[in-house]
Amino acid sequence: MVRVWGLAVVMVSCGAVVAGGEFAGGSPGVGAVLLVVFLLLAGVNSPLVFPRSVGALEARERSAVDGRPVVYWRPGCTYCLRLRMRLGRSARQVHWVDIWRDPAGAAAVRAANGGDETVPTVVVAGRPHTNPDPAWVRAQLSRPA
């Protein structure tokens, strides 16, 4: 759990230190802006931005039934964040697996990527795709199961 929230906690801590320095230096406006920026960065790099993660086994079972893609991701990954933001509301139609919380998910990603934990890895119809274009993933959601 600490690993999942680690980057967000670091962002908040750094923001507090930098903003505190600006407040102490007589620049409360700059300090407030910097604090807000660091808080936004922490929120974007936290698990809160992503829909609820499920385990790899559960995601595979659900995907076999409903035909939806499975996205293996991890907090702090800019490519995962890009995919999540570009999917918009459609992101709720995808099964998300946080590889830092689920060892089976991490193993599935390593198996698909020659031993590397390269994310996002999107599995559609049993075939893995490493860091696919978000428009392609969205198109897979509109295909009939």
List the helices and strands and how they pair.
Blueprint: H1 2-24, H2 28-44, H3 56-66, E1 70-73, H4 78-87, E2 95-98, H5 103-112, E3 121-124, E4 127-130, H6 134-142
Parallel strand pairs: 1-2
Antiparallel strand pairs: 1-3, 3-4
Helix pairs in contact: 1-2, 4-6
Q: How would you characterize the overall build of this protein?
A:
It is a single chain. The chain is α+β, with helices and mostly antiparallel strands. It has 2 domains: 2-48; 51-142, Glutaredoxin (3-Layer(aba) Sandwich), CATH 3.40.30.10. Helix content is 55%, strand content 11%. It contains 6 helices and 4 strands; from the N terminus they run H-H-H-E-H-E-H-E-E-H. A 4-stranded mixed β-sheet has the order 2-1-3-4. Helix 4 links the parallel strand 1 and strand 2. Helix 1 runs antiparallel to helix 2. The longest helix has 23 residues, at 2-24. It is elongated. The chain starts with a helix and ends with a helix.
